[in-house]
Specification:
The protein has eight helices and 13 strands. By secondary structure, it is an alpha/beta fold. Strands 2, 5, 6, 7, 8, 9, 10, 11, 12 and 13 form a ten-stranded mixed β-sheet that branches. Strands 3-4 form a two-stranded antiparallel ribbon.
Amino acid sequence: MHGLTRHALPAIALIGLVLVSHANAQAPGLGASVELVDPHVFRVCADPHNLPLSDEQGQGFENKIAELLARKLNEPTSYTYFPQVIGFVRNTLNALRCDVVIGVVVGDGQMQTTNPYYRTTYALVFRPGTGLDGIEALSDPRLKDKHIGIVAGTPPATVLAQEGLMALAKPYPLTVDTRVDSPTHAMADDVAAGRIDAGVLWGPMAGYYAQRETPHLTVVPLLKEGERMDFRIAMGVRRSDQDWKRKLNRLISEDQAEIDQILTDYGVPLLDEQGQLKAR
């Protein structure tokens, strides 16, 4: 996601997921017979400074999911960390330094994707008790005179423009080096401090940072917009790694309940197959 970002449509949709270029996508892998450099280690490609997704201390939910699947395989985890900017896939997965990216948009053109293991959406965040309680969509007239944070180039930015809300909006950058900048964290802090009235964040970022502010921010998943706000998230592997993909698909299916619990613990708004919020 960050989201929501390895991406062009879904790519720019997700801040915190991987930003990569199509030029990095075409490494051959190791062939069908020997897909993994070390088949006895669960080798993960990840960003070292991108909470709530991943970090070097293993505190992100993608770290926790990787550890869960590695335990099921009775294998240790090993990480190759690299900032999720252009060159991420070339320097990690396609350089054969690791074997799986834990969070990518289904159908990402940079790599082969597994079956999805969660579906989530962008969300509106605001301080409770500021006159915005009960809002369900960006078309609500109470937002007309509000200063709203928005990540430039993401689907909600289109909706803000359609609703005439961009004049007072505060833009935050889409493409950043996570070692030195976290626009999603900055947006949540700005909402909590009253510097802006509300913000629109990729769901995993919204849920995570909202529950770390005091008081907690209100999180409203955007389920009623004309533009697509939700995306299915899978794992990414090299294009040649068919057996590995099938193994990951099996693990996802067998361990879906535990994966859901990890995501819920991090505040991720989870959607079912009908696009409705799952009961917590």
